[in-house]
Structure formats: C-alpha cells, structure tokens
Design brief:
With 494 residues, the protein is of the alpha+beta class. It contains 18 helices and 20 strands. Among the domains are: 210 residues, Bira Bifunctional Protein, Domain 2 (BirA Bifunctional Protein, domain 2, 2-Layer Sandwich); 110 residues, 3-Layer(aba) Sandwich (Rossmann fold), CATH 3.40.50.800.
C-alpha cells in the first residue's frame, strides 16, 4: 500500500468567495457604528427586533426561487417537508412577515430597528460581497408625510451621531408619485401595461451621473449604442415625454420651496403628481419646523433609488468630502444608505394596504466611507498584560488582574506557554501599554514591577548597546504592591 493512500486528509484552509473574515478592529468599529445608530432609533421610540436568517422563500416576494431556479439571487434549500427556505435577502421582507404574523397584537404604527447579516447569491467582486450587514429602522402602519419626514430626520440624526458635520452629508429626497405623474402626462399609463416602459425610464434616469443628459435622452428615446458597440433599447418616449422627464431630473433648487413650485408646473393636472407635490410640501414644513435646513436635507429629483419598490417619498444619504486618490483625482463616496415609503410589502400577506416607511444603510460601506473621511468610530485600549513568571503564582496574578479590572483597567493574565522574552513579544503584538511583572522576590518584598512598553520602545531607539539598555532599564519601575492601581493609572494617563 502506498504512503499516499495512508496520508490523512487535511482540508485546505480557504474562505468561500464573497464572504469575509472580520478581525477584532473591524468588529469593534461595526459594533460601535451600529450602537450609535441604535441610540438614535431608540431615542425616538423605536423598538429592537430580531428575525431569523432563514425565511420561507415565498415570504421574500420577488426573490422567490422556483423549481427551475432554486438559488436564483438567494441561498435556498428545501426543508424536510419540501418547502423552500431561503436566507434573508434583506431585513425588510422578514420584518413585513413578522408584522403580518403578529398584526393584531402589535401597536400600530409598529416601529422597529434591526441590524444583521443579509445574503445574496450573486457573483462576488471588488467591494461586492455575498454577505453583508444592514442596519434598518421602519414604521409600519404609518400613513402620511409626518412618518416620511421623521424617517428623513432619523437618517440625518444618524449622520450626526457618528460624528459627521452638517457640511459632510446631505439627505436627498424625491417622490415616486412625481415621476408617475410626469410619465402619466407623457402618455405612459400607470398600469401593468406600462410597467416595462416605466422601468426603462427609471433605469435611464439612474444613469444620469454616468452618461449625462445626452446619454439619458437617447435611452429615453429609441436607444443608445455605447463605446463597445453594445446597443441598449430605449424607453420609446415621444419628444414631449423626453423633454418632460429631463426637465423633471433638473427641477431641483437649493431652496426646497422653489423646487416645489417648479414641480407644481411640471406635473400639470396629474392627480398622482399633485399628490406627490403635496407630500413634499408637508415634509418641507416639518423639516423646517425642526431645524433641518436645505443644506442637510434637499429635494433632488434625480434620486430614483429602485423606484419600482417604493410608492411615495424616497431619499438617499450622501456623504460629501474632498477625498482624492493617489493621483490627486477626486473620489466620490456617494450614497451610503437610504429609504422611503413602501406600502405593498405587508399587504402581500394580508390583502390590505399597510402604509410603511423606512431607512437602511450598509454597515461596511458606511464604515469604509467614514474611515476615508478621517472619522474614527472606535478607540479601544489594549489590555495591560500581567506576565506569568511562575505558574505557582497564578492565583496572585489573577488577583491582581481582578483588582485592575475592578478599577476600570482592561487587563489580562498571560496564560500561554513561553518564557519572559516570549511573553514580552506577545505583549508587543497586542500593543499592550504596560507589562506587570512579579516573582517570588517581589512578593516577599511586597512589590511589583511595571514596565511602560510604549515609552520603553521610544527610549530604546536612542540606546546603542544592550549593555546600556540593561543598565538604564528604560521605563521600568518597581512600586509597592498596595499602590499597583494608582501607579498603573498614572502610567496610562501619561
């Protein structure tokens, strides 16, 4: 028998594509960011909710797998009763299922917040993952502009809570009903028959930043051929329709009131369009009363945000910063989250309209943007390390660590294997500020030795020989054991 056949199987340590390992610093930063958002939600009376990672696939709506596509867009599996289950694609659909399932017992509006991983069975790429964390807040059973205005305020409050100045962000608001009114006046019916054409219009508007007005105009009309020669069929709007849509995308004004006046003229006699203008007017009144100026919250008619999902006001939170790449070119961070009114999700389960509005942001994307803008979301102190010179003295070492922790000092006892040199290397890798050393001699003398590792490293740079280092013993002091806490605090504060 060959040696190869007797060789035990050892799996290769490899991470699945599209999934991340997150070290301590990433987890701490994400936890801190979520905690700041949760504090905003909680202060406004929202309640936390946790839903399971798996849902029955039919509860996920448009992401429902079928027999021919069991994993289309989602990670799905069949339960032992042959029902399809899928990992949640977002946090909103599970919340809608929860509300429908507990509708009579819940106080309405039901106001909830949640953060958790969501999963998408899509091809991963740079900055595109199959698992990522969302952080949401929603009001279900909340009709009217007041609920939408509050959700916009929530988004602005989260920006402030994470340390952004008002000049570093802007919440940009639009309304689904406005574009519906424009299209209706342009001959595109607000029915299933006009659904495909409306989606093409939305996709065209969404490319405004990339293609400019000329490119979008072509996509609103017959179509457009790109630089590679690929041809994209257009929405087939007439000349008047194209003019109306392009006029809509440029109707924004720094003054919210002026934007409303322009929109009143654009929507004409469309009942749905006029309703959208009224909603924005009501939102503006509430924002103004609560001190949210146009610099923080603007009306921007170029915001589309997957309008097929929404039924009224929509908004995006955009970060504004002068960030440049290595070649000095400006880097646009753009939207890190958003939300709006969706009145159809809970009604899928109950057969009656349940008005809802919400806000959501991607935690990793938001955190990355904050770091690029120079905003640190968390500052964690490395632990003080108590070296274990003598295993027989472990009770004494753990007693010291308990005392230091009781005084609010993060502390750990070295419990690994290794001599003093290895323990010092461990302390250096952990970034420990202080090493505490105590052997039989120190115990007999009622003393303990403290080594300021950060100061010692700086002083050692100026010492030329090991002999000089041994003689000077930089940043190392022996203090009475009874004064341990006071001396450690003094070192840390220095």
């Amino acid at each position: 028998m060959s040696k190869k056949k007797n060789k035990p199987f050892r799996p290769k340590a490899r991470r699945p594509r599209g999934f991340e390992d997150k070290p301590a610093e990433t987890l701490r930063a994400e936890t801190a960011l979520i905690a700041k958002a949760f504090a905003v939600y909680d202060a406004r009376g929202f309640e936390p909710l946790q839903t399971p990672v798996f849902e029955y696939a039919d509860a996920l709506g448009k992401f429902l797998p079928d027999e021919d596509r069991p994993n289309e867009g989602v990670f799905a599996m069949q339960d032992d009763d042959e029902q399809w289950m899928a990992m949640r694609y977002d946090l909103t659909a599970p919340m809608a299922r929860y509300v429908a399932e507990n509708y009579d017992a819940l106080a309405k509006p039901y106001r909830r917040y949640q953060a958790g991983s969501v999963y998408r069975n899509e091809k991963p790429g740079p900055g595109r993952f199959r698992e990522f964390i969302q952080c949401d807040a929603d009001s279900v059973g909340a009709p009217g502009a007041a609920a939408d205005a509050e959700m916009i305020m929530v988004a602005a409050d989260v920006m402030r809570a994470v340390g952004l100045k008002d000049s570093e962000y802007q919440i940009r608001v639009n309304n689904r009903k406005l574009l519906d009114g424009i299209l209706e006046a342009s001959g595109v019916p607000n029915t299933e028959a006009g659904a495909a054409q409306r989606i093409q219009v939305l996709r065209a508007i969404d490319k405004l930043d990339r293609l400019g007005a000329d490119g979008v105009e072509a996509l609103l009309g017959e179509g457009r051929e790109d630089e590679s020669g690929d041809y994209t069929d257009g929405a087939k709007l007439g000349a008047d329709g194209i003019k109306a849509v392009l006029g809509f995308t440029t109707a924004s004004d720094p003054d919210r009131g002026n934007t409303i006046k322009t929109l009143e003229q654009l929507v004409g006699q469309s009942e749905r369009g006029m309703a959208g203008v009224k909603e924005l007017s009501d939102i503006d009144a509430l924002l103004t009363a609560c001190g949210y100026a146009p610099e923080q919250v603007a009306f921007d008619t170029s915001i589309v945000r997957g309008l097929g999902y929404y039924t009224g006001p929509v908004f995006e939170a955009e970060l504004l910063a002068d960030i440049r790449d290595r070649k000095g070119r400006p880097v646009r961070i753009g939207s890190i989250g958003g939300g709006g009114r969706y009145d159809g999700l809970v009604s899928r389960f109950r057969g009656q309209e349940v008005p809802s509005t919400g806000f959501s942001f991607g935690v990793s994307r938001f955190l990355s943007a904050l770091e690029r803008m120079g905003h640190s979301t968390v500052d964690v102190n490395a632990p003080v390390i108590i070296c274990a010179f003598d295993k027989a003295l472990m009770p004494a070492y753990f007693m010291m660590s308990d005392e230091l922790r009781a005084a609010g000092i993060r502390t750990e006892v070295f419990i690994g294997a290794g001599n003093v040199t290895k323990q010092m290397k461990y302390a250096d890798k952990r970034g420990a500020p202080i090493a505490v050393m105590m052997g039989e001699d120190e115990i007999s003398a009622g003393e303990v030795t403290l080594k300021d590792l950060a100061l010692g490293a700086e002083m050692a740079k100026a010492i030329e020989s090991n002999e000089e280092w041994r003689e000077s013993r930089p940043a190392q002091v022996t203090v009475p054991r009874a004064e341990l806490i006071n001396h450690v605090k003094a070192m840390l504060s220095a």
